[in-house]
Specification:
alpha/beta, 60s Ribosomal Protein L30, Chain: A, 2 domains, 4-stranded mixed beta sheet, 28% helix, elongated
């Protein structure tokens, strides 16, 4: 038996996934597995003219090769026994971090240097992370200056991650200058919360 619809199986954000099983294949199992925080999503299985809504932890439906659905109740032990290897191979949930910089520089503030340790820990936890680093500035200076500064901030973070052993091709870095302010201000306003990088790890 094979586990169908991996995204639905996780049920971390599923909210109405539907699937009609193909004919002439082996049995398929659709199940709702609670997330690490206990969240339970919902999936809808449509087969052979019927519809089953699965919205309880470990609720399942087995669909036979001829399309007949049959309700199933699984245990956590059964899920782990049959699909533990598959589930452990799935990527973790995305993580986001915001780090702040000294004015006019690509150097982190002391508080953000400490926060960077959390970023490093998250990267080490993921065997093949996909990382996006977006640099930002406040509104002090002209557009060209801030474009260069925001990119320098993003590239500085990228270099630190490469130094940790992350493959360069897994890290995208870009600068947005003063176009996407976290705190809206007039031009030439020094606002510490706008001098930042946003790091997304998947």
């Amino acid at each position: 038996m094979r586990l169908a619809a991996v995204a639905a199986v996780l049920a971390l954000a599923a909210a109405g996934c539907a699937h009609s099983p193909p004919r002439n294949t082996g049995p398929e199992l659709f199940a709702v597995i609670p997330g690490s925080a206990g969240h339970v999503g919902t999936i809808v299985v449509r087969a052979n003219g019927s519809e089953q809504v699965l919205d309880q932890a470990y609720a399942g439906t087995r669909v036979s090769p001829d399309g007949r659905p049959e309700a199933a109740r699984l245990s956590a032990d059964e899920i782990q026994r049959d699909f533990g290897a598959t589930l452990s191979a799935l990527p973790g949930r995305p993580a986001s971090f915001t780090l702040y910089f000294l004015e006019g520089r690509d150097e982190l503030t002391p508080a953000s240097r400490l926060e960077m340790e959390k970023v490093f820990a998250e990267l080490k936890r993921r065997p093949a992370p996909d990382i996006v680093v977006i640099g930002h500035t406040d509104t002090v200076g002209n557009l060209s200056y801030n474009d260069k500064l925001s990119l320098a901030r993003a590239e500085r973070m990228r270099e630190l991650m490469i130094g940790l052993g992350i493959a360069p091709e897994r890290i995208q870095a870009a600068g947005r200058g003063k176009r996407e302010l976290l705190v809206p201000t007039e031009d030439n306003v020094s606002e510490a919360r706008n001098r930042r990088v946003e790091i997304s790890v998947r």
